[in-house]
## 1
Amino acid sequence: MKKLITIWRFIDGKAGHEKQSIAAINALSKKINCEVCDIDLPAKTSFLSALLFGKLKKLKNLNKPNLIIGVGHQTHLYILFAKKYYGGMSILIMKPSLPTDWFDLCILPEHDNVWAQKEYPDWALSGEARIFYTQGPLVDIKERKRNKRGKSMILIGGPSKNYQWSNVKIMLQIIDLIKQNPDDKFRLVTSRRTPKSFLKYLGHGRLRAIEPGEPLGDDDVLHAQNLDIHTNIPSDPEWINELMSEAPYVWVTNDSFSMIYEALSYGAQVGLLCLDAYPNNRLDRATRQLFAGKRCNWDDERNYKKLTINRKNLNEAEDCAAFILKKYEKN
């Protein structure tokens, strides 16, 4: 019988953070029996207020943790408090706003380039390591489907601090993509960040070539017989993950690094719809590294028929879980 460990998972209510901690825990549960205690952080309450008003007393009623996991800046002090008073190994899945050496392990993308006193130089499983680098966010992969019989996906992000959003630039690329692949079926999915000014061009109407620099008119709405459009995304993240696992090709706007990485993890051929990056942009450098390593595809000449990349599927949640257990056992 596999050994049982207790995991405390601090949750800050942000879906993106929760997805990463779930990915790590589910990967761990495949290797060892896990008792998971989910601890929701008090809404709109600082750590100090939670401490002063006794909102942390409930932790006494839980089995003492072997691992304490959290994602998000709000979880930092809760993780450190839990370790000090209840023991266990503290694990933060992000670039910390506190010194990395305050935590037993920080899991973060390699493009963050964080320095630590005890940083391991390679992939060797060292019990002294304080940082485990990944190429991107952790993804919970329940099933990779070998026969990709679903519709190809087009995933739209929105304005961000890293890229200059342009409705016209993205529309140009989508139109080229659809026109160059008339026999393919596509599913376009927007996100919470997608601006309303872009959404109004998604509907029934005509599909025509738009020249670079040309403004979009009120009747320039995107329409094609081989395109389904989803602007109201279900809150359940499994909906899009299921579609992604079936999609042979996934096209993602390059402002959405997490979605690029999820698509790669599900084994799809991944292409980028590109926005102009702001200077000194770490995420843009990381995306270009994926391209240089032949993980994903884009073409400045907008030829969307060249998307054929043979590569190994990513599963960094599994690699991360193996490292966590090795470090836990050594300590």
## 2
Amino acid sequence: MKPRTILFLSLLLFLSGAVGAATWSVERDGTGDFTVIQDAVDAAESGDTILIGPGRYPETSDFDYYYNQTVQSCIKLEKSLAIIGAGKDQTFIGPDFGNKNEYGTYGLASRSTQLQLELRDLTFIDCDGHAVLFDMESGGRLMMDDVDTENCWGGGFEEDCR
């Protein structure tokens, strides 16, 4: 193979990795890639963006917290993502039921350290645990813009979940 061909193929491979961030859409009406936020989070890779349409997203699943406690969480996060709603008066994340267990229900929960998380244009609602449980003391970075909480325990944000 010619050196220029090898150089071209190497450059093409390098550029394809640099452009790899994807955008996923979540829409309650089924017009997006997903109808459940956690499904989009599970499919996404670190660096991806998840766009969430209008509506309430109440789905929860078990999240293994510390000291053998299992809590409920609408979003379990173990990778760096941008999660962007349609507006804090249009996109609502939170359970539509009372507390399922003694430890509470969280809007978003992560035990991973050093994640980069961007939250924008959404509201966490009716979380009897924190709205966001995220570790920033170990190097994580949480950026929020136009994020609100309604009826969440303690106002909503726990920065150190160690």
## 3
Amino acid sequence: MKCHKCNSENSDTAKFCHKCGAELGASPEPKKSFLEGKGLIILVIAVVAILAVAVAGYAVFIGSQPNLQTKDFGGFSISVPEGSDFVLKTNITNIPGKLYVGYVNAGKWNTEAYSISISESKTVPTSTGEQVESSGNQKIFANKTSSGTIYTLYEDKGSCAIMLIGSNLNLLKEMSKTFQLKSLDALKGPTTATQTTSTPVVSGPISILGGSFSTGSGDADKTYAKINVGTGHAGESYTVQIFYSRDGKALNNGNMVPVSVHGDGCIYVSSAEAYKFYPDHATIKIYSTSGQLLATKSVTLTPTSGTQTF
């Protein structure tokens, strides 16, 4: 059995390393050491930990339902989470003569409520996962991923259909209830007369050429990713999703982050929060702004602080 601390070989029945004395079979060490207590101290720590988990769980429950505010998109209005920022990503006709317009959330709650799409063709998005609900003109599809379930809510609103994508199904349902169509013509921009595909114009296929990951040694330090896709894609918009893990256990939920390629041909993305353990694996996924997976790369990392290239 190899010691996780000094890498010395020990017998399979050994409980402690013969070289450094570390306990064998122990969990990976966090970024910083934690003092171990006994007796009453252990009891106090356990009680505090339980209370912390309970408070955190309650906060997540409360925070999972943000306040809604009405947003006027010109041709329609809909209530969206406070702090969200839905920006126009697609304004084209995916079927000749039929409007399709899409908005992606570049602000808060961009995982819970990721995108809003309006379609005049009213094509049911059966490719977005398994249908799990159907009521009247509303259909809901679920796409289960390693980080959780992503829902697609489709609803025929008469003159058009709306499609909402996000991880919070109750939130999507509340948003759908508030949708008010004003004018399809007001949504048609100048690009609708010339473009005939639902994929935003880009310079060509995109691939992940390399990059780096950086993590500081402090408990509050986030993980930063630099992804090189080439200067030929400079200025183009995409959506990036990065899953981090340690010893096969997920460290994050893989937020969908709207990004633009910098002039140096790189995409820069930071983790949403700091992780207790250094990641030893990362999976990068790059999507088009309409949600099509364009490139993916799996990266093995050394679980230490500093910058690592791949």
## 4
Amino acid sequence: MDASLGPALAALLLAGVYAAGAGAGRETREAAPGHGKRAIASAAAGVSIAYVFVDLLPELAEQNRALRAAAGEPLLFAEQRIYVLALLSFTVMYGIEHIVLGRRDARSEAVASGRRDAVYWIHLAGFAAYSALIGYLLVEREDRGPDALAVYAFAMAVHFLVVNHSLAEEHGAMYRTHGRFVLAASVAAGWLLGTVAQLAPGAFARLFAVLAGGVVITSLRSELPDGRRGRFWPFCLAAAAFAVLLMVA
């Protein structure tokens, strides 16, 4: 496969996951969705979490070495810096989710009265930047070999199912009408940027840490806030199965 074709196909796949469907709408948020859909969302979250703990977090140690080498001199808290970046990413994404959930009632009144939902646009912008980062990293995954790219593309495609379900459930028709297409375009834009702008190892290491923190919070957000609607066994079994697959591969 041509070196540029693999990331392009992966970007098309990831963008297609966003564009193809958006799950449950706002009107179904208070009612529990069907067991099948909830089980699929829980299994997808399990795959995402397994990918983080078995593949991404171990690679953070490698990226930490790249960051230290790029600095060319001893760094203050050198061993912890990249993990602090992952924590910062986790915290920022959590903060966005906290704003969304905390203003849910006020947003519902604004939409009902025809006013713009500013929190929706903040939420969408955060995930657009996050999705662009995932698209950007496709080119680097290809540099590590087709297997690394295939695993990354699969894990992120499943992860986008979680994101799609969560955003559609929270924002309903607004997200289904145009939001999912904004995120699909963000993936493509990130991939295009990755083909023309290669980052230095230190900058890439920082972006990788941001990705790791973001995947954790966006996957768990679909399970924890509405824990009564989560499905433990699909989550657990999917996480275990994908973890074994990653270790064997």
